[in-house]
Acetyltransferase (GNAT) family protein
Amino acid sequence: MHGWAARVARDWPAFEVVERDGWRLGSAEGVTKRANSALLLDPGADPAGVTAFYRERGTPPCAQVWPGEEEADARLARHGYAVVEPTLVLAREPRERPDAPGTTAVTAAPGAGWLAHGPAGVDVMARILGGTTALYGTAPGGAGRGCAVLSGRTAAVCAMVTAPAARRRGVASALLADLLARAHDEGATDAYLCVVTENTAARRLYEGFGFTEVSRYHNRVLG
């Protein structure tokens, strides 16, 4: 398994994980592709194993494809799997505690404000994050929310959302700074995150905080 794939799977854990037919198959009630996708274990694995697993659970068959897995990518394509959401992995090297406004409510569990702000399935996302040690940030007035999963000296930033009416007002920047500062206080001096390649606004935000590309992947989904 690709090294970054293993880290991402650890920090956004599925409820069910099965290793069979040359794949690591994760399932979490269909909420987010990251927790409901297959990771390659055997370079020669047949995509039919992915199809069968997710059909059994009533969710779209999905596989992550990482650098070096081009042969598996071609097999998935021949089985009708289409490319969905090419994604970048961005990382921030260890550095001093960032300046932060302190306006974000950062807690060790998701509060009512965090749960109220988000897409359908936010309750399942909270359960996914419940399998980790995490910090939950909520912007004033519910204008945004985010999370930082803590693993040793690394924080995995995820679940970042800004309310449409609050965009371009510095909400995401303040929230991210407060999460990184609190994570630093907890011993996490470096960080990483995943962002859809086409999300240029989010990429500009993260690059402004010193995040740079370290890997990338795309999903292959069977319609």
The CA atoms of residues 32 and 125 lie 8 Å apart. The chain has two domains: 3-87, 96-188. The helical segments are 3-11, 48-57, 70-78, 112-116, 122-129, 171-185, 200-208. Residues 171-185 form the longest helix (15 residues).
